Amino acid sequence: MPSKTKKEWQEKVLGPALKRAPERQEKFETSSGINLAPVYCPEDIQELDYATALGYPGEYPFTRGIQPTMYRGRLWTMRQYAGFGTAEESNKRYRYLLEQGQTGLSIAFQLPTQIGYESSHPLAKGEVGKVGVAIDTLEDMEILFKDIPLDKVSTSMTINSTAPILLAMYIALARKQGVDTAKLDGTIQNDILKEYMARGTYIFPPRPSMRLITDIFAYCNKNVPRWNTISISGYHIREAGSTAAQEIAFTLADGIAYVQAAIDAGLDVDGFAGRLSFFFNAHNNLFEEVAKFRAARRLWAKIMSQRFKAKDPRSMMLRFHTQTAGCTLTAQQPYNNVVRVAIQALAATLGGTQSLHTNSFDEAFATPSQEAVTIALRTQQLLAYENGVGDAADALGGSYLIEHLTEQLEKKAADYIEKIDKLGGAVAAIEQGLQQREIQESSYQYQKNIEDSKSVIVGVNKFISPSVKVPNLLKIDPAQEKKQLDRLSRVKKERDSEKCNKALKNLEEVARSQENTMPAFVECVEAYASLGEICDVLRKVFGVQKEYLVF
Amino acid sequence: MAGEQNIRVLVAKPGLDGHDRGAKVVARALRDAGMEVIYTGIRQTPEMIIAAAVQEDVDVVGLSILSGAHMELFPPIVDGLKKKGMSDVLIVAGGIIPDEDIITLQKIGIKAIFGPGTPTSKIAEFIRSEVATRKN
Fold this sequence. Notes:
The complex is a heterodimer of chains A (551) and B (136).
Chain A: H1 6-20, H2 50-54, E1 77-78, E2 81-82, H3 87-99, E3 105-107, H4 111-115, H5 138-144, E4 154-157, H6 163-177, E5 185-188, H7 193-199, H8 206-223, E6 227-228, E7 230-233, H9 235-239, H10 244-264, H11 269-272, E8 276-282, H12 286-307, H13 313-316, E9 320-324, H14 336-350, E10 355-357, H15 370-385, H16 400-423, H17 426-431, H18 434-451, H19 479-494, H20 497-512, H21 518-526, H22 531-542
Parallel strand pairs in A: 1-10, 2-3, 3-4, 4-5, 5-6, 7-8, 8-9, 9-10
Helix pairs in contact in A: 3-5, 6-21, 10-12, 10-16, 12-14, 12-16, 14-15, 20-21, 20-22
Chain B: E1 8-12, H1 21-32, E2 36-39, H2 46-56, E3 60-65, H3 70-83, E4 90-95, H4 99-107, E5 112-114, H5 120-135
Parallel strand pairs in B: 1-2, 1-3, 3-4, 4-5
């Protein structure tokens, strides 16, 4: 007679089996320290009320997805993050990707552009055109989008402390192309808080940085209504070494801080919350990752409705971009990365992502080559068109394991958020080093587990084979730097310097006042002020932030 | 003979990138392995790193960079340390550094470059044995 309950099965069947042959590991644990049972059954989710905890796709609490039809209506946006060298080279890569069926652009900027220095600044030495494209003035932006009409693409820009300046350039470019800014579609990352705790491209202290962010919320609400004004990012928190639960918690806690700042600045929650978007990581543990996306959606919906009293369902929807986990790519046996990325991408799509970047297999060596990035894009196309992944919404919903993990992750994340609340919110917690300490602890544990062989990384600490050389790695031509410096000095010579100085002076006044800064940024970039010059003004007014170093 | 508790290490991050996970993990692992570790934080210029190495009188300088600016930033650090009379200091590095650059960097005096996936125990062992031969 088969067992009637889990308890009966444990006693009658599982117990004796374990006595005969123990399991191959003492415990089976997820990244977030959730200890898994041998199997999950109806008993494990007895408390779960379908209507309130899951509901239907497109309805509160959006656990099963934010759209009623999910990928049956429209597939996720395939959006490969790219940018290197000068604007000309990056423009070529974007046009190639669009020709290959990519459906949105995603711009990677060089570090000097991200940290507010001209390419000619001493600190920019060696960094020009590396990790992303060099943008100094509006002219670079004009070249970057040559033959790409801004009303026909959606553009995501990974830019944070200098986000208002890049957004201003995009707006100025749209005007030049004759495109109504109301038609612009895209995203700026604009998430400064995770920069202090994980990614490192902050310039100014948190308070003025938050003001720049809420200025963008207010400005876009009126002028660029379809723009996603922020992409609140857990991706980098996870890359820095956090667990899945910490990724949800620290991201949503940042989200809470932004919403609160905007409300404090006098904005109506339903006026801006629908334009908030999120960005998560897709890591190795397939089921924990799928559950993570579901848990994040449910928790955010509750936060927006209960804490912030949002009324519009759009304000409660957690829309997100996903990137597969760069930190899981190995230099050893690099072709294994193609498989890792495919499974991580599967997690993201089963988790209901709105857009996806799949990493290239050669990224443990260099910025991806065209061949590698094509395989990465094809991986998404395979999932979308060959594997039936999007044929029904939330395909894993109802799985006892997935529902259990979703609940556990939501609970763990909510506990962290409570801790952060008690410290005075995300900004105060960062100042006290809470998130940094937690992330460092997890990343150290992760590394120790690999070195103690508690975690297996194929090709790294098990199944090792002689190293393989990856052919055709991308190399940034050092001549690009000179080209960029020449262009910058020419633009500065040719521009109307009086107009430019006037715009910069006006920006300084506006920055010192309570006025919205966005129109002043647009005026500056239209006068071809460089991003470095604009940031110099802001550094003078706002000061600079030192690293919140916890070690 | 240098006891390993006497090994002083500066872990430094030149360049503008904020990818400090590796640097922090290595710094902590070396500390747990009994060394005295000073970590500089991110966005350090060659001048700042040289000054810190001199001031802290370290035996080892470990450089971590993932932005691709290593060929511009490592040589001035190596030169500067020599000029400050620290030609005995052991210099090692880690990050995303292509094979052909590794050869060049080793020639100018960076003793070892530890790529992605290197166990921290291997780094500690290397430092210990190198410093021991230098101090003998």
